[in-house]
Amino acid sequence: MRTKKAMATGLILGLVLGVGSAFAGEPDEQLPTMTAQWWQFIGSIPTTVNPGLDPTGADCMVGQRGPVWFLAGTFSGGTAARTCSIPAGEALFFPIVNFVNINTPNVCGSGSANMSADELRAQIAPFIDAATNLSVQLDGEPVEDLPRVKSKVFAITFPADNIFNVACGGPGAVPAATYSPAVDDGFYVLLKPPKVGRHILHIHGEIPSISFVLDVTYDLTIVPVHLK
122-157 burial string, b = 16+ CB within 10 Å, else e? Predict the structure, then answer.
């Protein structure tokens, strides 16, 4: 979308790939696919229950499936303190700061011409180049490896009540439809499944060039799963 949106830590329609070895400290070719799936996930959820707009964590379970649990940040920056229960055995995947750009002719201030994936990537790269003060802590311990990931090219489907409407002018500004191509660029973390019990996850990131500051704390309870 020519009106570009930043969103940090943050949620899928579609399928989630197996986790494989792509955990923090172990870069993996699956991550560009997972970042696309993260945006498809967050983009598919109406604003009334969207985890990226949730101040308390009450919507953290909306749309979750598969072996990876997607966490959300705050759309357009800001702070949040969320409480969330997650089934044991789920890996955690989230961005610290990220930027999506979507080809949306005649929508949200875009012209009538289509944009290629390369053109979309070129527009958002400078914002992620400028990202700073990135940090992730789990139970007070820093996560050392915070890789920058450029998504694969993907399509994204929005409902009528979608997260981009407000930034683009209000209800109906971004019609319900499937848009492509779309690309994302950002810093992401994939954590191995935490042990059963309580954990505190803190995420912080900044993009000074657009006055973007994100600071999110999750109070997580990992709940045992009984299958027999």
Answer: eebeebbeebeebebebeeeebeebbbbbbbbbebe
